[in-house]
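note to self: dont lose this again. the chain is below, predicted strucutre after it. 170 aa total, dont forget to put it in the shared folder this time
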Amino acid sequence: MAQVSIPPDRVRDPFQRNLPGIEVGRDGSRTPMQWDDSRFAGFSEVEPWLPLADDFREYNTLKQRSDPSSIYHLYRRLIALRRSRSALLRGSYRPVHADGDLLLFFREQGSERLLVALNFGMGAGVAKFPDELAGTLLLSSHLDRRGEEVRGGIKLRPEEGVVIEIAGKA
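---
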């Protein structure tokens, strides 16, 4: 769901009502949940007090659930991964030096070691680490790289994040 432009006559946020015209109200992020593509997006049987986004028929929970590459399925996979890995539940956090728009860190618990690599940039990036550091990619934010073997570094697409299970000691 995106920020929705609220016409002046439908503004409800007190701050925006007291300072009209500067568009700093919170109403645009408080629009009705877009559950499906029915008349009022499955939120209500009558017109909601804030308007729906114009694209609610394309962007709604029902469509996200049927698209295996959607943000809905990414969140479900992230939640399942967190529940299944003690390093993500209770593990320590250890940052790793990275250049540019990359953020790298380990989560470790007992013998379980996970490396999280995030590319916040709009261009591709490469997270480099010693060749001794190897593992298997558990999850990509694009939901398409599971099982990929990793050694000495990983190429990340724009705005991609990955979780890698590190094998052995390093």
